[in-house]
Amino acid sequence: MDPNVLHNISYGMYVVSSFMDGKMNGQIANSVIQITSEPVTIAISINKVNLTHEFIRSSRLFTVSVLDENTPLTFIGKFGFRSGKTVDKFKDTKFDLLASGCPAVTENSICYLEANVMKEFDCITHTLFLGEMTASKMLTVGKPMTYDYYHQTKRGTTPATAPTYIKAEGKVS
Questions:
Q1: Helix (H, G, I), strand (E, B) or coil at 103
Q2: Measured distance CA(59)–CA(29) in Å, rounded
Q3: Is the pTM of this model over 0.85?
Q4: By three-state DSSP, how is residue 51 classified?
Q5: Tens digit of each residue's pLDDT (9 = 90 or more) over 116-154
Q6: What is the pLDDT of residues 32-66, one digit of tens each?
Q7: Is the Cβ–Cβ distance between 71 and 108 less than 8 Å?
Q8: Which residues contact 87 (CB under 8 A, 6 or more apart)?
Q9: CB-based contact 89:107 (threshold 8 Å)
Q10: Which residue(s) pair with 67 in the sheet?
Q11: 45 - beta bridge partners?
Q12: Residue 134, CB half-sphere, CA atoms under 13 Å: how many?
């Protein structure tokens, strides 16, 4: 079996954010999909060890900000390779604070949506959260960054906590 076939599934690059007890956190995610159009239902896959997971579980809300292709690697690194347990990722980051209290990253984003968690599914290392869209906003016209563009053009890497991480030996984690 060749796990590299999984690199041919299309993904995007997003910042998924939430809040808990007056604190905000966000992380880079690539596993975000629309499930239905009525009601508008979104699915996200979040690693159980990530702080964002804890915040989503507590608030039952999350936002998804769609990153533009021009997003610098330093910005992706801030949300993708640093822990919100030790760094305030929203410091010096442009965002909208929605009526619910959930933050939505506007910096380097084409648009964002907010969703209320309807269901969650245990996927061993990750939780699949299904959310009904409750708010959304277009910010600018741009080209959404795909995961392939992130790897091929930006030369970005994949952290071990990502759902698409493949171990060096070619085994799917």
A1: strand
A2: 18
A3: yes
A4: helix
A5: 999 999 999 999 999 999 999 999 999 999 877 777 776
A6: 999 999 999 999 999 999 999 999 999 999 999 99
A7: yes
A8: 78
A9: no
A10: 109
A11: 128
A12: 17
Structure tokens at 34: 């629309």
On whether the CB atoms of residues 94 and 42 are closer than 8 A, the answer is no
**Residues in CB range of 147: below 8 A, 6 or more apart:** 10, 11, 12, 13, 30, 164
Average pLDDT over the chain, rounded to an integer: 89
Tokens for 168, please give them.
Answer: 């060096």
The pLDDT tens digits for 24-40 are: 999 999 999 999 999 99
Report the DSSP beta bridge partners of residue 116: 61, 132
Q: Find the length of the chain.
A: 173
- What stretch of H or E contains 2? none
pLDDT of 171: 41
